[in-house]
Design brief:
Layout lengths: L11 H13 L4 H8 L8 E5 L8 H4 L4 E6 L2 H11 L11 E3 L12 E7 L8 H13 L1 E13 L8 E4 L2 E3 L5 E3 L3 H10 L2 E12 L3 E10 L2
Parallel strand pairs: 1-2, 1-4, 2-3, 4-5
Antiparallel strand pairs: 5-10, 6-7, 7-8, 9-10
Amino acid sequence: MVRFIVISPYLCPVMKNQQLQETFGNIDIYLFDQILKGTYDDCRVILDAGCGTGRNLTYFLQSGVQVFGVDQNPEAISQLSSYAGTFGQAIPEENFRVAAVEELPFEKETFDLVISSAVLHFAENQKHFEAMLNSMWAVLNPGGYFFCRLASDIGIESLVSSIGNGRYLLPDGSERFLVNQELLLRLSNELSGELYEPIKTTNVQNLRSMTTWCLRKSN
């Protein structure tokens, strides 16, 4: 006897959402945007600098590329290592390390893509910010991509209060190292990097602003 299973069309969006969740996890929406555009299709060696438990790595862990991550939280690295193992790949333990972003334990010009999501705004001062940025830039291959999301004062300039050392008190009560468009453009030139996406900023109800800064390293 042949049996038919009828699936309500109203379930399809739920099924699609589940598939998206399984494929991409809780990924940064602007990183997701670059993946959909195919920007990183040729990137074979990827580093998430300040990876946490790996929320931005789900897609890459399933894509057959070499994935690396560093974070200062040992528990986060342990969770990421366990999570990575669920995808059936034999990933070396040394791919995920407890380390500071300003002291990345990798050779220069190693990665095709370096991800820095919600990390640089925790800089203690300008010197610390530049140390983290230069460390990530050094391990990026010529022609490689740098994807960065960080807090800025863009659109909320009059609502933030300086507390010194490049850090500010935001309307949401947090303290962050903030950048602006002028600084990002100057840094882009100093690094000899090319914007592969215009600088974009999301203003969250005048409580904070998050900026996406996408650079490609010159060959």
